[in-house]
What we know:
By secondary structure, the protein is mostly beta strands. It has one helix at 48-59; strands spanning 2-4, 10-13, 23-28, 33-38, 43-46, 81-85, 88-92, 100-105, 109-114, 119-122, 128-132, 137-144, 146-150, 155-162, 168-174, 177-181, 187-195, 198-200, 204-206, 212-217, 223-227, 230-235, 241-248, 251-255. The chain is built from 1 helix and 24 strands.
Amino acid sequence: xxxxxxxxxxxxxxxxxxxxxxxxxxxxxxxxxxxxxxxxxxxxxxxxxxxxxxxxxxxxxxxxxxxxxxxxxxxxxxxxxxxxxxxxxxxxxxxxxxxxxxxxxxxxxxxxxxxxxxxxxxxxxxxxxxxxxxxxxxxxxxxxxxxxxxxxxxxxxxxxxxxxxxxxxxxxxxxxxxxxxxxxxxxxxxxxxxxxxxxxxxxxxxxxxxxxxxxxxxxxxxxxxxxxxxxxxxxxxxxxxxxxxxxxxxxxxxxxx
Length: 257
């Protein structure tokens, strides 16, 4: 079922089978993704921000001489497509610019990606994958598993409950990682931070054996061994793996109060 967005209006999209959890996938070229929850069964997609951003971009262009004195009538709307198939709803902006707000049932899983915007998710109980190239990723008040990545931005995650058998990953090239989890979370942590510090109020049992990243033979016949700048350890006896990786920034792992 393909639903073309018109004039930036809100679109209500039902899942094929509302009796089971669905998935929402959002891909934007330029814009922020905001996800909130409600008690309804449908997914609400608000593309008003996309329409406004697109309009601003167009009106900034120089007006050709042949249309001087005429008023432009915008007939393209937000240029976004919303599609539902087999309990998966896809929102795709193509090359349009703008922000999208999606309201979903709490048990919905999310796969979100934007190149030049932020990702902000709150209240979801499904699995979350969030990726931003040039913006922050913020996922709060959630229950489930999270994979969050930003190339140039902070990654902030607050979990009310952690899925016992699911691995999670939090990474950024330039920015801090700040993750809050319940105090009884069981996990094996992999912490890699090339130019920064790691802070935590969890009692962590560290593994002492360093791992070799590369081994190379020098011109004089000697071997050079480079050890990986990674710390591994367990909290509350261990569990699924959680990786934390940043090149420039702090890693902070907190117990939820």
